[in-house]
């Protein structure tokens, strides 16, 4: 009678560790983003709008353009959503309407002495 050994259990897949080196990272501030897409990529243009209250046509210079594949864009969307959710739980809702945000800020300011 031949001995049969049970098959060895498959080794658990190892987790990869990603170490970030940000020494050569380019830093920029942006208060404007435009998102466009192709069937294969998501393109995010970042700019600085120095006059957000200006009406009519404004020309903004794109400072940075980020091109992501759709998988990375979806992971970024989820990470940003989780980050903003934690922010709002801690600090309150982020008001996107600029005029309401300005009005709320004016109401919170104490009156200036004359």
Could you characterize the architecture of this molecule?
With 114 residues, the chain is of the alpha+beta class. The protein has a domain at 32-108. It has two helices and three strands. It has helices at 70-91, 98-108; strands spanning 32-37, 41-47, 62-69. The termini are far apart.
Strand arrangement, largest sheet? 1-2-3
Low-pLDDT parts are none
Structural class from helices and strands? alpha+beta
> How far is the N terminus from the C terminus?
104 Å
- How many runs of DSSP E, i.e. beta strands? 3
Shape: elongated
The largest β sheet comes out as:
3 strands, antiparallel
Q: Overall pLDDT, averaged? A: 87
Number of helices, where a helix is a run of at least 4 consecutive DSSP H or I residues: 2
Rg: 24 Å
Instruction: Specify the helix fraction band.
Output: 25-40%
Strand content bin: 15-25%
Q: What is this structure's SSE topology?
A:
Blueprint: E1 32-37, E2 41-47, E3 62-69, H1 70-91, H2 98-108
Antiparallel strand pairs: 1-2, 2-3
